[in-house]
Specification:
Helix content is 59%, strand content 17%. The protein is of the alpha+beta class and 175 residues long.
């Protein structure tokens, strides 16, 4: 590869790394081309991208970026998973894919919101529900709370109405 091509690839990779809210480094040893293409398709469906990178070019791409120093993890076959702000869907795809493909790829490390995340935490994130599901759950909890308050107020009003009715009956009986 010519020097100008290396510089262009490094610049493109640096731009993608800088724009990504989430970066996962993986070891894809043992995956064939067909499997890699399947993984790419599954990630694309979750707005994520899988790139195979040359380690030296990746290290150079990281030099001027405001990211943690993860250069030590660029050894052996390295694939990058790049996605936006929700780290869960892409992690789920990789974990589920690995379960069906002899545990490959393997997470090496992650970067979420410009913070280094150990591989163990990435695996735990893969077990979380997506942001949409979490937000729906929170909204449901809030709605349930409001329904409880409304039910409580309705019960108090009903009790007051019953008391007024009882007082009215006593007044009629006494009159």
């Amino acid at each position: 590869m010519r020097l100008d091509e290396k510089k262009a690839l490094t610049a493109t990779l640096a731009r993608k790394l800088d724009e990504a809210g989430v970066v996962y480094l993986t070891d894809f040893t043992g995956l064939g081309v067909e499997s890699m293409n399947t993984l790419r398709q599954q990630l694309r469906a979750k707005d994520a991208e899988f790139l195979v990178v040359k380690n030296t070019l990746a290290r150079r791409a990281l030099v001027d970026l405001d990211l943690p120093d993860i250069t030590d993890h660029f050894s052996g076959p390295t694939g990058l998973v790049l996605t936006g702000s929700d780290p869960v869907p892409a992690a789920k795809v990789v974990k589920d894919f690995a379960a069906e493909n002899e545990n490959r790829p393997v997470f090496k490390i992650g970067v979420v919101d410009r913070r280094e995340i150990p591989a163990e935490v990435v695996y735990r994130m893969a077990d979380l529900p997506s942001m949409d599901v979490l937000l729906s759950s929170i909204a449901g909890s809030l709605t349930a709370g409001v329904s409880g308050v409304v039910g409580g107020i309705a019960a108090v009003i009903r009790d007051i109405a019953v008391m007024i009715e009882e007082v009215a009956k006593k007044e009629e009986a006494g009159a």
